[in-house]
Design a protein that fits this description.
By secondary structure, the protein is α/β, with parallel strands linked by helices. It folds into two domains: about 140 residues, Periplasmic binding protein-like II (D-Maltodextrin-Binding Protein, domain 2); about 230 residues, no CATH class. Helices cover about 65% and strands about 5% of the residues. The strands form two sheets. It has a four-stranded mixed β-sheet, with helices on both faces. The longest helix is centred in the middle third of the chain and has 40 residues. About 30% of the residues are buried.
C-alpha cells in the first residue's frame, strides 16, 4: 500500500505543479466559452446589412419592407403583441437595405428582373445587390403563388427565410383586410402564441424545460467527457515515456506492475477530479450570479439544475474516467511510441465516443429505446446515463443498473489491463498482434 501511495502521490503532484495545469484549469473554461460565443457574435456581425431589391408585382406590399421606425408611423395604430414585436425585431436584425420596386403593371416581371440580376455581380458598390426578391402579380389572390429569391450564394437561406416570412405576413394581413377586418382585429387574429417547455417528473414536480436544458446538458456532458480522454492520453504518454527511458524497469523491480498501474490510474484520476472540481466551483459561482440577476427579472434559473446533478456528475465522471483510462493504459503498455499508440487507440476511441456523436438524439429523446440501451450498456453507460439524468427523470433502477454494469466493466478492464500491463511494459520491438495479446492474458 505504501508503494501504491508513493506512485499516486508522484503522479498527482507532478501534474498539479505544472504551470500548464494551473493555466488550463482557470483559463480553459474561459477559452471554451469564447469558442462558443465569439463565432456567433462574428457571424452576426459578418452578416452585416444586405442590399436587396424587391420587385413587387402586386404593388401593395411596400409597407412590409419599410424599416420598423417608418412602419410605426404608418396607418396601423393597433397594439403589437410581444411575439409580433420579437418577430419584427428579428427581421430588423437582418438589417436589410431594401430597394422596393413597384411593378404592378408589369406583365413580364421575370424579364424585368434580369436587369436587377446583373447587379448581383456588379463591381460598383452603389449598384451591387446581395439579393433580388420577385413577387408575382397573383400573390395576393392565388394560394399557389411562389416567390423567387435570387442571390450570389446558394446557401443564403437566412435571407431567403426572413424575406419570405415578411412577405407572407404582409400577404396574410392584406387578405384579412380585404375580408373586412380592421387593423386591430388583424393583429389579434395573427398574433402568435408562445410555448413554454415544462418537464414533469415522476412525482409530478414541474420544472422548466426547453432550449436552456439542451445547452446545459451539452456543456456538462462535454465537461464529463473531455477530461476523461485528456487524462487517458496523459497516462498513455507517461507509460510510453517510462518504457522509452527504461525507467519502468527500475520501478517494477521495487513494486508489482499492478501497484504501478493502480497508482498511476488513481493519481491521474485525482488530477482530473481536482480540475473538474475547480470548474464546477467556477460554474456554481457564475450560476449563482446569473440566478440572482435572473431572479430580479422573475426567472428561476435554478430550475434547470438540481443538487443531484452534481452528485451524478462526480459518480459518472469517475466511472467514465476509469473506463476510458484502462484502454489508454493498454495502448501505452503494448506500444513503443506515441504514434503507434495513437494508431491503435484511434478506432477504439471513435467507438467509445459514439454517445457523443448521438448526443442531440439522446438529449432530445432521453427515454427512447436507443438511449435506454446505451445507458445500460458497458462502456457507453456513464456518459449516456448522465445525459438522461440531466434532461429527464429515468427510473432509479436504470441508474443503479448502469452504475453496477460500469463497475463490473471497470473491474474486467482493470483485470485485463493489469495482465497486459505486466508483460507489455517490459516488451520492446514490434507491436503485439491480437493473438499475442490473448496469449499474454493467459500467461500473465
Amino acid at each position: 500500500m505504501n508503494k501504491l501511495w508513493a506512485v499516486f502521490k508522484r503522479e498527482y503532484l507532478q501534474a498539479v505543479r505544472k504551470k500548464m495545469f494551473i493555466i488550463m484549469t482557470f483559463l480553459l473554461p474561459v477559452f471554451m466559452a469564447a469558442i462558443m460565443v465569439l463565432p456567433s457574435m462574428m457571424m452576426m456581425k459578418g452578416m452585416g446589412e444586405k442590399k436587396v431589391a424587391v420587385l413587387d408585382g402586386t404593388g401593395e406590399l411596400r409597407a412590409a419592407f419599410a424599416k420598423p421606425a417608418k412602419r410605426a408611423g404608418g396607418a396601423s395604430k393597433a397594439p403589437v403583441s410581444p411575439m409580433r414585436r420579437s418577430r419584427e425585431a428579428a427581421d430588423a436584425a437582418a438589417a436589410f437595405n431594401v430597394e422596393y420596386v413597384d411593378r404592378r403593371d408589369d406583365a413580364k416581371i421575370d424579364e424585368t428582373a434580369k436587369g436587377y440580376l446583373n447587379r448581383l455581380t456588379a463591381k460598383s458598390k452603389d449598384q451591387k445587390l446581395d439579393g433580388v426578391l420577385v413577387i408575382p402579380r397573383d400573390t395576393l389572390e392565388a394560394s399557389t403563388a411562389r416567390l423567387k429569391y435570387y442571390s450570389r450564394s446558394a446557401t443564403d437561406f437566412i435571407g431567403q427565410e426572413r424575406l419570405g416570412r415578411m412577405t407572407s405576413r404582409a400577404v396574410q394581413r392584406y387578405r384579412l383586410a380585404k375580408s373586412g377586418l380592421n387593423p386591430a382585429q388583424i393583429e389579434q387574429v395573427t398574433a402568435e402564441v408562445g410555448v413554454d417547455g415544462i418537464q414533469i417528473s415522476k412525482t409530478g414536480e414541474q420544472k422548466k424545460g426547453g432550449a436552456a436544458n439542451f445547452f446545459v446538458g451539452f456543456i456538462l456532458t462535454a465537461l464529463l467527457l473531455i477530461p476523461s480522454f485528456i487524462y487517458g492520453l496523459e497516462i498513455m504518454r507517461g507509460i510510453i515515456q517510462e518504457k522509452t527511458d527504461r525507467v519502468v524497469e527500475v520501478l517494477v523491480s521495487s513494486m508489482t506492475p499492478s501497484q504501478l498501474l493502480t497508482g498511476k490510474i488513481l493519481g491521474v484520476a485525482a488530477v482530473g477530479l481536482t480540475q473538474i472540481t475547480v470548474w464546477l466551483v467556477m460554474l456554481a459561482l457564475i450560476m449563482t450570479f446569473g440566478a440572482a440577476t435572473a431572479a430580479m427579472a422573475g426567472e428561476n434559473v435554478l430550475s434547470l439544475l438540481r443538487p443531484m446533478t452534481f452528485v451524478y456528475f462526480l459518480i459518472f465522471f469517475t466511472l467514465a474516467y476509469l473506463t476510458y483510462v484502462c484502454v489508454y493504459a493498454i495502448g501505452g503498455a503494448v506500444c513503443n511510441s506515441e504514434k503507434e499508440a495513437q494508431q491503435l487507440i484511434a478506432p477504439i476511441t471513435m467507438i467509445m465516443m459514439l454517445p457523443w456523436f448521438l448526443l442531440v438524439a439522446l438529449i432530445t429523446n432521453p427515454d427512447s429505446t436507443m438511449a435506454v440501451a446505451f445507458s445500460l450498456a458497458p462502456v457507453f453507460g456513464p456518459l449516456t446515463m448522465y445525459v438522461r439524468t440531466l434532461v429527464a427523470d429515468p427510473p432509479l433502477w436504470h441508474i443503479l443498473v448502469s452504475i453496477a454494469v460500469s463497475i463490473v466493466t471497470i473491474a474486467v478492464f482493470l483485470w485485463v489491463t493489469a495482465k497486459i500491463f505486466r508483460i507489455g511494459i517490459l516488451s520492446y520491438g514490434k507491436r503485439p498482434t491480437i493473438p499475442e495479446l490473448w496469449r499474454w492474458l493467459k500467461v500473465a
